[in-house]
Amino acid sequence: MPPLVHKMQKGQKSNLAGPLQKLKVCFGWNVKDARCDVDASAFLVTDTGRVPGDAWFVFYGQETSPDRSVTFAVTPNGTDREEITVDLQRLDPRIKKVIFVLTIDQAIPKNLNFSMLKDVYVRILNAATGQEIVSFAPAEYYANVTSMTMGELYLYNGQWKFNPVGNGIHQDLAGQCAVYGVQIE
């Protein structure tokens, strides 16, 4: 786990000050059970709280949003495991929030959960400088949680902010998709 320099508490909100254009939202974790395959994803939602269409869900199977503002990448040789880059200048004006979720693949049928993880974190970096802006690591890992909303970037009065959510649910990725209006096969 990298040092989390500007660590936030669950529910604490922070302005992303300065003329930021591009952010790297980096995720990391360690597993206590090798069967845990964790994936990061992002839901780009409008003011309705839902995606404008299925293509506005970015993850390992759909790595770029339609406006090319949000991209997913695995970072196996770096400090972080996965990252989602957000270009705030390219973001479609309909998008008011980008919600970041970690999900354990096949958690429900394999009886896996977040108590089998440790050192989970999200950190947001200025993509131009590599400097950490904010970070969050949940304090609790519950056995009834199979996916967790780690945080959200949201637009408030013309200013982008970050909210470290840290709320877990007993849902798979399909369940998370249903919450935000993504239709999956």
Overview of this protein structure:
This protein is mainly beta and 185 residues long. It has one domain (14-179): sav2460 like domains (Lipoxygenase-1, Sandwich), CATH 2.60.60.30. It contains 2 helices and 11 strands; from the N terminus they run E-E-E-E-E-E-E-H-E-E-E-E-H. It has helices at 107-110, 173-179, and strands spanning 14-15, 22-31, 38-45, 57-58, 70-74, 82-87, 97-104, 117-126, 132-136, 147-156, 159-169. The strands form 2 sheets. A 6-stranded antiparallel β-sheet has the order 1-11-10-7-3-4, covered by helices on one side. The chain is globular. The relative contact order is 0.26.
What does the secondary structure layout of this molecule look like, with pairings?
Blueprint: E1 14-15, E2 22-31, E3 38-45, E4 57-58, E5 70-74, E6 82-87, E7 97-104, H1 107-110, E8 117-126, E9 132-136, E10 147-156, E11 159-169, H2 173-179
Antiparallel strand pairs: 1-11, 2-6, 2-8, 3-4, 3-7, 5-6, 7-10, 8-9, 10-11
Brief digest:
It is built from 2 helices and 11 strands; from the N terminus they run βββββββαββββα. With 185 residues, the chain is mainly beta. The radius of gyration is 15 Å and the shape is globular.
